[in-house]
Amino acid sequence: MERQKRVAAIHDISCVGRCSLTVALPILSAAGVDTGVLPTAVLSTHTGGFEGFTYRDLTADIEPITKHWQSLNLKFDALYSGFLGSFEQIDLVADLFKKFREEDTIVMVDPVMADNGVLYSVYSPEMAKGMAKLCSMADIMVPNLTEAAFMLEEDYVGDDYTQEYIGKTLRKLSDMGAKKVVLTGISFDPTKLGAACYDRETDTISYAFNDRVPGYFHGTGDVFGSTLLSGLLNGFSLAEATQIAVDYTLKSIQLTVETNQECRYGVCFERAIPYLIQRLGLLK
Predict the structure, then answer these.
(1) Nearest-angstrom CA–CA distance, 188 and 198
(2) Residues 6 or more apart from 119 whose CB is under 8 A from it?
(3) Residue 23 pLDDT > 90
(4) Start and end of every Pyridoxamine kinase/Phosphomethylpyrimidine kinase domain (predicted)?
(5) I need a surface site. Which of 11, 38, 149, 216 has the fewest CB within 10 A?
(6) Percent of the chain scored above 70 by pLDDT?
(7) Alpha-carbon span 260 to 163, nearest angstrom
(8) How many helices (H) and strands (E) does the chain have?
(9) Alpha helices in 139-215 (DSSP H)
């Protein structure tokens, strides 16, 4: 039997509201991946749609955890970072990448910091620049259009873009250092939504789309990113893994709508896990 792969997921924990580690851990685990976690912060809820949430910064814990992992001689097939709790964490996570990266390790950075043209409330422009530095160390970066604009220090274009613009943006993001870029939230048709992929080694761009469901659904970026990495660790190509991630995210949204769930609590990805396992070819 093939050796089980291991990933370190570096995200916050939102105690209520399905996102970050409460999404990444179950999705990667369902995909057959041994998933270690490094929490960057603990929040009572996620920051979208809730007021008065608590926020505990775990910056001081990152270096001791990293050192203990080193003492255990741990090896990781992937290092996957998302929401970071402070500016200081950028250098700490960069150092973790250097310590645990090996020749075949996938380093994937989702620069979770902004959406709809606006930085999240706990982020600053300084932190956006720092996130660009972290993305430069990645093999794969997975920003949305807002995050791409902040990292490239360009104006946010909203929905006013062309396929040519997306192609140029993908290449400029890759020029920062990542060999592969997946740009999320892309649409050229009001009835479709998906992502654009760029592979610098082959200089190819591909797209993955599926039906758009009206509304704003919290946590879908984390569902998408965790599924993308699950596909890659199960041997799918970047284009294939991206399509699986788009389809599974849609399935999770559809189940949320069908069961009349309140959107701010995240999408019903749990009920769609059998679909994901099937798409990954894990049912024997």
Answers:
(1) 17
(2) 113, 125, 128, 150
(3) yes
(4) 73-262
(5) 216
(6) 99
(7) 35
(8) 9, 11
(9) 145-152, 163-175
- For residues 74 and 209, what is the distance between their CA atoms, to the nearest angstrom? 37
Paired tokens of 127: 């932190």
Domains, the chain, ranges and CATH?
A: 6-279 (3.40.1190.20)
- The Cα–Cα gap between 279 and 247 comes to 9
DSSP H or E segment with residue 220: helix 220-233
User: Among 197, 192, 194, which residue's Cα sits nearest to residue 173?
Assistant: 197
Angle at 169 (CA atoms; ends 10, 86), nearest 5 degrees: 30
Two tokens, residue 60: 């001081």
Q: What is the pLDDT of residues 160-194, one digit of tens each?
A: 899 999 999 999 999 999 999 999 999 999 999 99
User: Which amino acid would we find at residue 161?
Assistant: Y
Q: Over 90: is that where the pLDDT of 126 sits?
A: no
Crossing angle of the two packed helices 145-152 and 125-135, in degrees rounded to 10: 90
Q: Which amino acid is at 50?
A: F
Average pLDDT in the chain: 95
Please indicate, yes or no, whether the overall pTM of this predicted structure exceeds 0.85: yes
**Nearest residue to 241 via CA among 255, 229, 223, 251:** 229
